[in-house]
Design a protein that fits this description.
By secondary structure, this protein is of the alpha+beta class. Keywords: Ribonucleoprotein, Ribosomal protein, RNA-binding, rRNA-binding.
């Protein structure tokens, strides 16, 4: 015979849900044909906005920096989604850096001694975007 207690409840193990896992995805473009200053003007306004709301705003920005950043962000989001299996709705910016890239210089004899001895400098940028998001289960 088994003895049962009146107030005893069956022991059920508690299943503790694991906290969501977060990963980072990195996108780099080393040679953008726009000066870093022009790109930084737009990047500084975008950094604070959530990733999901940035693309619609950028598509209506009528600048070369807007077109470049739209393509870069679309690529970064696609990389995070396909390669790192991150949910696009949970993505947020960890860092958004614009650095100086290689410069191309050429002589322009028509300017002579003006404009830094007639040397025309064409500036390029390096863009680094690091996104953080929740991993799909």
């Amino acid at each position: 015979m088994t003895i049962s207690k009146a107030n005893s409840k069956p022991i059920v193990p508690k299943i503790i849900a694991a906290p969501p896992e977060f990963k980072e995805s990195k996108f780099m473009d080393k040679n953008l044909q726009i000066s870093p200053r022009k790109l930084r003007l737009l990047v500084d306004t975008i950094k604070k906005v959530p990733v999901s709301k940035v693309l619609p705003c950028l598509k209506f920005t009528n600048t070369k920096a807007g077109r470049i950043l739209t393509k870069a962000l679309e690529t970064a989001i696609a990389t995070a989604k396909n390669n790192y299996h991150l949910l696009p709705d949970t993505l947020s910016f960890v860092s958004f850096m614009v650095n100086e890239g290689p410069k191309t210089k050429r002589m322009d004899k028509s300017h002579g001694s003006r404009f830094a001895r007639g040397i025309i400098t064409r500036r390029h940028s390096r863009l680094t975007i690091i996104l953080k998001g929740q991993v799909k289960n």
